[in-house]
């Protein structure tokens, strides 16, 4: 059998409007207002892997005409969304400290994400302090019910109805983070069309069991 889990690049793109808020409704509202008014200089988001940090940073950068970066520190821009700040090495931390000060003086907007709150980051003390000066929000992961709703909405956007049996099997046996669940759903849809089969539990099993070559 040919490899079922294809490398798929769907037309779907992260936007604030297609982010499933769950318990993060206040944060979503704050980000929308911040992009509209540019009244906030720095916003720091933290949460577990798969909680939606990258989705929000990419969405904000796209909607503001800004720059999304991960693992690097760019030059000053009107809006920068920097993901996974905890991964920066010593030299990059120095550059980010300087960038923070420059963007604050210029009135630009800096959006930063990390895996823990600013006070618990293993970064330079002066950088941790700066990141804690602005708005700080923890991203809360979705419940299984909220994930099921998100998957049903995503399936609808791709033009098919997701059965409750497929949803429950995916939540029990797939990777738990929403990006991975969405990617598996994309693979299910694509292979359903390619093989002329209904998006079903048997087909989902084949996809989940198929290992990359």
List the helices and strands and how they pair.
Elements lengths: L24 H13 L4 E5 L6 H12 L2 E4 L8 E5 L6 H17 L2 E6 L10 H9 L1 E4 L5 H14 L6 H10 L4 H18 L5 H9 L4
Parallel strand pairs: 1-4, 1-5, 2-3, 3-4
Helix pairs in contact: 5-7, 7-8
Main sheet record? 5 strands, parallel
Order of helices and strands: HEHEEHEHEHHHH
CATH superfamily of the largest domain: P-loop containing nucleotide triphosphate hydrolases
Q: Can you give the helix content as a percent range?
A: 40-55%
Overall pLDDT score: 90
**Total E-strand runs:** 5
Can you describe what's shown?
- This protein is of the alpha/beta class and 213 residues long.
- It has two domains: 23-138, Rossmann fold, CATH 3.40.50; 144-209.
- Helices cover 48% and strands 11% of the residues.
- The chain is built from eight helices and five strands, in the order αβαββαβαβαααα.
- It has helices at residues 25-37, 53-64, 90-106, 125-133, 144-157, 164-173, 178-195, 201-209, and strands spanning 42-46, 67-70, 79-83, 109-114, 135-138.
- The protein has a five-stranded parallel β-sheet, with helices on both faces.
- Helix 3 (90-106) links the parallel strand 3 (79-83) and strand 4 (109-114).
- Helix 5 runs parallel beside helix 7 (178-195) and helix 7 packs across helix 8 (201-209).
- It is elongated and about 55 Å long.
- Residues 1-10 have low confidence and may be disordered.
């Amino acid at each position: 059998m040919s490899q079922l889990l294809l490398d798929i690049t769907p037309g779907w793109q992260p936007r604030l409007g297609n982010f499933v808020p769950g318990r993060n409704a206040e944060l979503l509202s704050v980000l929308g207002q911040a992009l509209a008014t540019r009244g906030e200089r720095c916003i720091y988001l933290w949460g577990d892997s798969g909680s939606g940090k990258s989705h929000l940073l990419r969405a904000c950068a796209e909607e503001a005409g800004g720059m999304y970066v991960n693992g690097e520190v760019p030059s000053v821009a009107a809006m920068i969304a920097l993901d996974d700040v905890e991964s920066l090495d010593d030299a990059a931390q120095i550059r980010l400290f300087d960038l923070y000060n420059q963007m604050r003086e210029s009135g630009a907007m800096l959006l930063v994400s990390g895996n823990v709150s600013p006070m618990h980051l293993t970064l330079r003390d002066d950088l941790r302090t700066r990141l804690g000066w602005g708005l700080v929000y923890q991203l809360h992961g979705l419940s299984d019910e909220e994930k099921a709703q998100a998957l049903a909405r995503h399936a609808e956007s791709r033009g098919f109805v997701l059965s409750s049996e497929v949803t429950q099997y995916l939540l029990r046996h797939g990777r738990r983070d929403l990006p991975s669940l969405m990617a598996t759903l994309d693979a299910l849809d694509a292979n359903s069309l390619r093989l002329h089969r209904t998006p079903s539990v048997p087909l989902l099993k084949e996809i989940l069991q198929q290992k990359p070559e």
